[in-house]
Automatic annotation (TrEMBL):
CDD domains: metallo-hydrolase-like_MBL-fold (cd06262). One of its GO terms (molecular function) is hydrolase activity. Residues 50-269 form the Metallo-beta-lactamase domain. PROSITE patterns: TAT (PS51318). It comes from the Bacteria. Pfam families: Lactamase_B_3 (PF13483). This is MBL fold metallo-hydrolase. Keywords: Hydrolase.
Length: 314
């Protein structure tokens, strides 16, 4: 496919960057984030597991955001869109293969491609799980261990072993003529029936996260939206951006401005997630357009495209 040809040069460029990013990161970090971690750990390995699933590994910790690797066909990238009646599948063998460790799991919203694997993964790893009341209720209904679930609403700043996590209120990107959120709604209070179909996993409010490892920090949104005033003043080393946000004026440009034109932008959630994780990512969202907008708005920002199961050292 053409997409395959187009992608190769960018990936080669990324590989050349390996090991050369540290000086730039150190210089950028001098500007400071809002949250200075107590432990000045150098070196974070960032690995992509498709969608908005990212693994951050240091010598002492593994942090996951939206870890979802089960991947069952939904039609999400066909003209008809995802079939709401699609049954949720949790492939424990696939989760075990790709996600060996977790200390902290951050959930941005309740959609299946973000949350469906977390209950099993939390049980296996003993990780702390952050999410809204709705996210946690959905995961409780799927068997997540109650004692590990940490309810957040935005505004929290938590110290972990070698890193901090700051939580911000957000909204999921809207779609369609009436600016609606896919599977919108919340489920506060009582734990619902066990979700069986993807439509049962409602958005449940959205959160964004700043993960600060001391020398390098990462800001992740989970969908193509953020609350500009909530994140005012943050200065991450790495900003994750994804295609979309068509209903959000100047989404990419405002995100870059709000985060101080970070040294790095990493493309997220651009793959067709009906396709296998174990093969090179097939384009679902237009990452080239995203790259071009980043280049125009922030010429000094390095745009990184990381392929399925590949890593980048910061
Ligand atoms: Zn998603």
């Amino acid at each position: 496919m053409n997409e395959q040809r187009d992608r190769t040069p960018a990936l080669r460029r990324r590989n050349l960057l390996k090991g050369t990013g540290v000086a730039a990161v150190a210089a950028a970090a001098a500007g400071g984030g809002v949250a200075a971690a107590q432990n000045d750990t150098a070196g974070v390995t960032l690995r992509w597991l498709g969608t908005n699933a990212w693994e951050f590994t240091t010598e002492t910790a593994t942090v996951l955001i939206d870890p979802w690797v089960s991947r069952f066909p939904t039609g999400a990238y066909t003209d008809g869109g995802a079939d709401p009646e699609t049954r949720i599948e949790v492939h424990e063998d696939v989760i075990d293969e790709h996600l060996p460790k977790a200390d902290t799991i951050l959930v941005t919203h309740g959609h299946w491609d973000h949350i469906a694997d977390v209950p099993y993964l939390a049980g296996r790893t003993g990780a702390t799980v952050l999410g809204t009341e709705t996210h946690l209720n959905l995961m409780r209904a799927m068997g997540a261990p109650e004692g590990q679930l940490s309810q957040v609403a935005g505004g929290e700043l938590y110290q972990f072993d070698g890193y901090t996590v700051e939580v911000f209120r957000s909204s999921h990107s809207a779609s369609g003529e009436h600016k609606r959120i896919t599977f919108g709604g919340t489920l506060p209070g009582e734990v619902p029936q066990r979700p069986k179909k993807i439509k049962d996993l409602v958005e449940g409010g959205s959160l964004t996260y700043l993960i600060d490892f001391g020398g390098v920090s990462f800001f992740n949104m989970g969908s193509a939206s953020f609350h500009e005033h909530e994140i005012a003043g943050i200065r991450p080393t790495v900003l994750f951006l994804q295609p979309g946000g068509g209903h959000t004026p100047r989404f990419v440009e405002r995100a870059l401005e709000a985060t101080g034109f970070p040294p790095y932008v990493v493309a997220s959630h651009w793959d067709d997630f009906d396709r296998p994780l174990t093969e090179p990512a097939v384009k679902g969202g237009d990452w080239e357009a995203l790259r071009d907008r980043v280049a125009a708005a922030s010429p000094d920002t390095e745009f990184l495209l990381i392929d399925h199961l590949e890593s980048h050292e910061f």
